[in-house]
Amino acid sequence: IFEVLYQAFPRGLDPRIGTVILSGLAKKRALDVSLLVLSWLKTNDSEVNNYHYSSIIDACAKTGAWITAVQLLNKMVESAVQMNAVSFNSVISACEKGGKWGNALHVFSVMAQSEVDANTITFSAAISACEKC
After folding, report:
1. Residues 6 or more apart whose Cβ sits within 8 Å of residue 4
2. Over 27-83, what HEC string results?
3. pTM for this one?
4. What's residue 16's pLDDT?
């Protein structure tokens, strides 16, 4: 995949195109490929933003890869990428699908500490996670 990306985008990738690519991969539940694209973006000094991370975390939620979702949320913090409701909601949903209600509630509390406003999707995902305990 790196070779294809290097050939298609020899000067790096516009962040908006990166978002489109990663969103499309999330819809296809192509988590492994999404992670490769993220790695490529980072190694090519392309801008990596919350839309990129949120798209990949969405792929995690769709596949129940809750550990990877939590790790990506942590990487957002380490990389000083602004977290938003979409990223938190997707991590909570991934934890819910993985049957990890405690982790879902922990992410919910981190969201509150991060001063990111919860919304209907947040509460729905947290409630859904608790229903499985």
Report:
1. none
2. HCCCHHHHHHHHHHHHHCCCCCCHHHHHHHHHHHHHHCCHHHHHHHHHHHHHCCCCC
3. 0.88
4. 87
